[in-house]
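Dig into what follows:
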Amino acid sequence: MSYTVQVGSGGYLGWKFLQRTEASQREIFNKSPDVAAARENFVKKMPNVKSADQLVSNYRLLTVALRAFGLEGDVNNRSFIKRVLEADRNDDKSVVNRLSDKRYLAINEAFSSLRNGTSIDGSQLSDISSKFEGMAFERNIGERHSEIEIALNAQRELATIAKSDSSEMTKWYKVLSSKPLRKLFEGAFGFGNTIGNLPIERQVDEMKKSLSKVTGWSDIGRFAESENVDKVVSRYLIRSATDTGGYFNKYSTALSLLGG
């Protein structure tokens, strides 16, 4: 049985509580029986897997592999995942390069050795196991409080995108192609779902204007600094509460301090 991560009633206050207790809660969560058993089985059995076919044929191993990249929803779509794992990432026309969701490219790269008939090495095995624990922790929270799962995703992903060597426009495309990050930005700046109907360049322009209005800057590279990520995350969480009508009076002053 898994440990249930404690975040109170969720929202902004739940997020602040998690920030104070995250390290200890992660340690407890990683030692919970189902998480520990899944990780240990993966570490033990994965060195014997040398092809994509072997991996997708083993439900327990595949579940860990997919969850490590936030793709557990594809656990029953084995033929598709096999195509993803076997795709040539150096071919611009391959499935992993045509998909806008770059998590598929990430899992393809992580298991690249399987295309050569060899098992993944020890460091990669350790890295994937750690990713699994982290994503399982986030999903545990997200089952009850999706807004905090989105906030944790932003902490992890925004800094990675910000520090990449990609152009500014490419970084924005990466943000908008990520469902959790898109939801974060749309929620933080009060955009409805209809913004997705606009041309992508216009979407980026509108996002940049809103970010600049609140922070004074619109460069994605600024999210390499954790305090800048916190600004948008806090705004998103507070707006999430006010938009439901449940905590408007309680948070309205704080929201105005974050940029109005």
